[in-house]
Amino acid sequence: xxxxxxHRLSVLAAACVIAAPAAARESQDASATPEIVVxxxxxxxxxxxxxxxxxxxxxxxxxxxxxxxxxxxxxNVAGLQEFRRSDSRSANPSAQGVTLRAIGGNATSRxxxxxxxxxxxxxxxxxxxxxxxxxxxxxxxxxxxxGGTGAFGAGAVAGTIELASATRADLLRYEASAFYGSRDSTxxxxxxxxxxxxxxxxxxxxxxxxxxxxxxxxxxxxxxxARARYEDWTTSIxxxxxxxxxxxxxxxxxxxxxxxxxxxxxxDSSTEANDASIRLVHRGRWAIDALAxxxxxxxxxxxxxxxxxxxxxxxxxxxxxxxxxxxxLRPPVGxxxxxxxxxxxxxxxxxxxxxxxxxxxxxxxxxxxxGGDSETIGAFIxxxxxxxxxxxxxxxRIDRWTITNGFYHELSAxxxxxxxxxxxxxxxxxxxxxxxxxxxxGPAIDLRAAAYTGFRLPTLNELYRPYTVYPVTTxxxxxxxxxxxxxVEGGVDFAPLAGVTxxxxxxxxxxxxxIANVTIGTNLLQRxxxxxxxxxxxxxxxxxxxxxxxxxxxxxxxxxxxHAPGRxxxxxxxxxxxxxSASATLAWAxxxxxxxxxxxxxxxxxxxxxxxxxxxxxxxxxxxxxxxPVNRHLAIVARxxxxxxETVLTRNQGGSIDLGTPRxxxxxxxxxx
Length: 673
Known about the structure:
The protein is mostly beta strands.
């Protein structure tokens, strides 16, 4: 399998190498002395992109959040949620899945998250390493709630979040910030971005630590209760170098480390990540976007009993590797068309190593290993056809998927083999597609409609790794089938006044064979495919700019239910799926002088479990950021998270409660030159 995969990846890499000189020859033929301008971006967006209803978060908003964290900014998009309401300081890393449109909270991301075209989901767990994604290193984020995407579309069943690295136009030579906050918290960021030859290089990093808060309510604390301590750091280097006036190479490497403690002393988790990618972008008549990447990750986690407060499970090693790439061609087919042809590959492999312990004796009772491989290789074609005020867009994908080498091996404390299971290899072919229409009906109004299908493979985590949030254990399921989505949506965007834009979208999505945590016994769940989750709803957004004052807001009404005939949860709301969510940010940012912004977020009531027995109440939080410039290089910044100290429940299992971030105040500075 590894040899086959290596061969496929080498084909994509060879395509990059072949494309570069061909692109260079084309450009040399076009002009003897072309001007070289390095952009550091991908190919331009096709004109039909807005047909699928997108929301853009700009760099100013990314750099002015109360927490300094990407997931905090993404919460401005109503309807976007992580598996739980915790952020990346007080959640187990493996629970940081992202979804949209209330099709069921899941520790695995149902939303495809890309950074410069590279999938960011962990190859074993499928979660998003938010601590490694520093907002200061980004130029913009585009969120598409539905519609999937051309490249790597096999994972976009609940939309796509596309992150774009900061470009030469965004980056100053030196940038730094330092903040000190509540509970002895510290956040330091910095970057150095010099020109290099005809291109540039940008080196940046972030260090973040804090003593943390008690996630456990005061009346449930015991001597073993611990604060949600965290410490993480990340550093990355990105280089962009021109080959000629229309062609450039973009390379990125990143290292990330994270350590957290949750609920009890000794309940520690750690994450290690080493990522690298290389990308060739040619913007000539035959446009090319070729990419290859590698991800090396590891995760460990210790589970402490909620009754004896002793170690009961040590998931001490989970090495995983992700490899992949894509090549996309845009041939010249006429002024009215943007045609995209391409193929992509994603391969994931990983192995869990863990030891359960007796709470009575403290001795190991077994040793377990589990893991396997999964892969998708796909080809796609898309075309955007402009007919005056009407843009038609559509495309299709064919993916070949495989799940192979799955196993579960368990030894007793004496070394005897208790279980040695090897799961049958399986695979299939899946065709998916999307169609959209965008009508510029007038100077201030656009009408749009879209229909799409998609699918997602179960992750290695869902297939092979059980986990425990004591006392509840969730079993893996090696027989899980891929999830399949089909959906339609329609919307309107209009600008009734200068500086004011409004948008409304109505949608219907159906996720067949949805993977859910299903109750099968007392304190026992199992990952299972359920018949379907059906979500329908309305999304609204607004933005207004009047001089120095701006207002942005979004609202989502998501009505989702589980179709599972004959099962206890048939007709119920999926776990972790609020019906209402909203966000609004009011900002005052003059060209010179102090600036101020405040963000209000509302998340409606949602259920913790599949049986609707445990409720997480609605919550409203307020964040604020104020900046006072000292001179053109230096500004003093104050930030406040959850300003009014709203109680936010993030977990409720049998009355065992976890809480979200309380009021957190920060003071610091930003420097740039």
